[in-house]
What does this fold into?
Amino acid sequence: MKKKNLLAIGLVFVLSLTLILSGCGNGSGSSDSSSSSKDSSSSSEALSGKITIGGSTALQPLAAQVAKEFMEKNPDVQIEVQGGGSGTGLSEAQAGNFDIGMSDVFAESKSNIDAKALKDYQVAVVGMTAAVNPKAGVKNLTKKQLQDVFTGKVKNWKDVGGKDLKITLVNRPDGSGTRATFDQFALDNKTPAEGITQDSTNTVKKIISETPGAVGYMALSYFTANDTSVTKLSIDGVEASDENVGSGKFPVWAYEHMYTKGEPSKLVKAFLDFMMSDDVQTKDVPAQGYLSVKDMKVQRDADGKQTDK
It folds into this structure.
């Protein structure tokens, strides 16, 4: 009887030990599975793929710099940044050919664009002003004088206080957001006279610097501190500076928009979030000659109406 009891107790002990070991084994398996799941989750969160950005040449330098930094942080991501003008940025984003379309103007201002199909991200502010060849001898014009120059009423710089030198106009094409902004806020929508037309801001700057008497217009980001190849023009005695743009004293400025067709993909959204991050907005944006939207004391709507924030 005692032997039977001892045998039963032994069987119970062995069975219990087996169950305990089995439980430990299952626990270990769950831990490995959880670890594997975490590793899998971590790898799935790593960003990869390609983003195509194009449009506004005024925004292009900033977009290229931020894209470079984003790719350094995400080595499996490839970003292509190209120009083409705001009209191209909007139309190609609408067509789905650009993941992000860059524009100096609201999509609502373009009759061939379905603004409701695009999502607007205002990533920076750009000031713009006239750029003049230094030999013209002009650093400031009244708004009326500026309009007379660009509409062809004034054909020689001596008539507005400059040198005896013929005026050569350098314009941007109709689809350019820089032109739309300059026409609206500098020329009060007066039609500019015919002149040389160039799509690229860099080319416009080169022509102005090499052509005595030439005048055009550029984003402030293209005027650099030690570059005397072109003269940055003041209007009505107000310098075209970040401070004056931010306060609303200098009238020629625009939002820099990044548009997506509907809601962006996870990758594109990550890039846009990075663009609006504190590091980019406080470092890259001013370093590239733009203003952070957060620093603006005034705002504009799609109709161009400026109000205090």
Remarks:
- The two ends are 95 Å apart (CA to CA).
